[in-house]
Amino acid sequence: MSSPPIEPTATYPSLRDRAVLVTGGGSGIGAAIVRAFAHQHSRVAFLDVVDDASKKLVAELAGGDRPRPLFVHCDLLDIGALRTAIREVEGRLGPLDVLVNNAASDERHEIDAVEPAYFDDRIAVNLRHYFFAIQAVRDAMANNGGGAIVNLGSIVWRLPLPDVAVYATAKAAIAGMTRILGAELGPQRIRVNCVEPGFVTTERQKRLWLTPELESRVRAGQCLPDLIEPDSIADIVLFLASDAGRMCTRQTFVVDGGWT
Q1: Ordered alpha helix ranges (H), 124-164
Q2: Would you write out the chain's pLDDT as a tens digit for each of its 260 residues?
Q3: Is 12 a catalytic residue?
Q4: Cα-based distances in Å from 233 to 62, 146, 166, 197
Q5: N or C: which end of the chain has fewer CB within 10 A?
Q6: Phi, psi of 44, deg, nearest 5
């Protein structure tokens, strides 16, 4: 059974003209988030290493009366390059009102095959740049009166799944980092929240992992019968970034159809 059509997202007047940065915005959940902010008439920029898909997304969203999205090529493993890219975005858009830390990679790995270099690489891919992106936007965001930071985690660390120990470690740490930074940045009116998706049917997931057996497991685990589309994740990110979520901070919001 296919999922029902996704209804258009709500309109948040407070997001119009706000400066938004999304990491890993060229595909998957990140691209859905970029589209969602663009449809809110936000001034949205995104970072990615995949040029073709990112340029295609910009072309898709260009035109009409919406601001044209800004794509900046950036390898998030290079923290110096990340800081430079954020300065470039701020130079083009002004102080950021919203940061969405999204970029990640859910490579599978057997415990005995993990070496220190691989462990460090997976932490860098899935966790380290979140912290340094927040560090880089904090001062300008605070001086601008505050803002919203949304960190994308995962329910993977809540489930007894094999071959994801390092990935799950990084995703669990995102929830912890959100709790601490939400408290530390709250006095500056910077809200920090975490969104933990369940199994989301991005093109990557369908190509690499979505076997009939996994689909059956997901549907059996969820309370709701439909598979999760990327738009469902974008919807809650919009809410948390908008004034509708103005008193939400230091929290983790699970979007998994009731699996956990």
Answers
A1: 129-143
A2: 444 444 557 999 999 999 999 999 999 999 999 999 999 999 999 999 999 999 999 999 998 899 999 999 999 999 999 999 999 999 999 999 999 999 999 999 999 999 999 999 999 999 999 999 999 999 999 999 999 999 999 999 999 999 999 999 999 999 999 999 999 999 999 999 999 999 999 999 899 888 999 999 999 999 999 999 999 999 999 999 999 999 999 999 999 999 99
A3: no
A4: 23, 23, 23, 7
A5: N
A6: -110, 135
Instruction: Report the distance separating Cα 53 and Cα 33, nearest Å.
Output: 15
The CATH fold of domain 13-255: Rossmann fold (3.40.50)
Q: Which of 14, 149, 21, 140 is nearest to 89 (CA)?
A: 21
User: Whole-prediction pTM value?
Assistant: 0.95
Rounded CA separation 137/130 (Å): 11
Q: What are phi and psi of 178, to 5 degrees?
A: -60, -45
Burial of 91 (0-12, 13-18, 19+ CB in 10 A): exposed
Alpha helices in 69-228 (DSSP H): 79-93, 116-123, 129-143, 165-185, 203-208, 212-221
Distances (CA, A) of 151 to 14, 131, 133, 237: 20, 10, 11, 9
Distances (CA, A) of 94 to 43, 63, 178: 10, 22, 24
Kindly compute the dihedral angle of the four CA atoms of residues 68, 73, 76, 82, in this order, to the nearest 10 degrees: -80
- Active-site residue, selected from the candidate residues 12, 118, 130, 167: 167
- CA-to-CA distance for 214 and 212, rounded, in angstroms? 6
Extract the tokens encoding 175: 């929830």
